[in-house]
Write a structure and sequence with these properties.
Layout lengths: L2 H8 L3 E3 H6 L4 H9 L4 E4 L2 E3 L7 H12 L3 E2 L1 H7 L15 E5 L11 E5 L1
Parallel strand pairs: 5-6
Antiparallel strand pairs: 1-3, 2-3, 4-5
């Protein structure tokens, strides 16, 4: 199994440009996968290995990878890890909550709320 396949397998089928390059791929490989519609861009430099709608888990993984180093936080972390909160979460929740270092200046991708810690 290639490094790209392994990354896709453990990251909800989401991968970044940096990971592709680190695995020995290049921008032409990414362009080919996009052109063939084997991958689709989620955020700049962040891709999923299909062209259909993203699952909530894929949207969360894409947000974390795009903002990396980052982690799910707040409602997203609670929802992802099944922590009972006594408050019902709407299945249609669209915002992914991500935490980054307080000194980082990164614009949140669409559908993402960034907290700095």
């Amino acid at each position: 199994m290639s490094a790209i396949s392994r990354a896709l397998a453990v990251q909800e089928r989401v991968i970044t440009r940096a990971q592709v390059l680190a695995a020995g791929g290049n921008d032409n490989d990414i362009a080919r996968m996009l052109r063939r519609r084997e991958w689709a861009q989620v955020h700049p430099g962040t891709y999923v290995d299909h062209t259909g709608p993203l699952t909530l888990e894929q949207r969360e993984s894409a947000a974390v990878l795009h903002c990396s180093p980052a982690a799910l936080t707040g409602r997203s972390a609670l929802r992802r890890y099944g922590v009972p909160t006594g408050r019902a979460f709407d299945d249609a929740e669209t915002t992914v909550h991500v935490s980054v270092d307080r000194d980082r200046r990164i614009a949140p991708p669409p559908g993402t709320k960034i907290s700095r810690t």
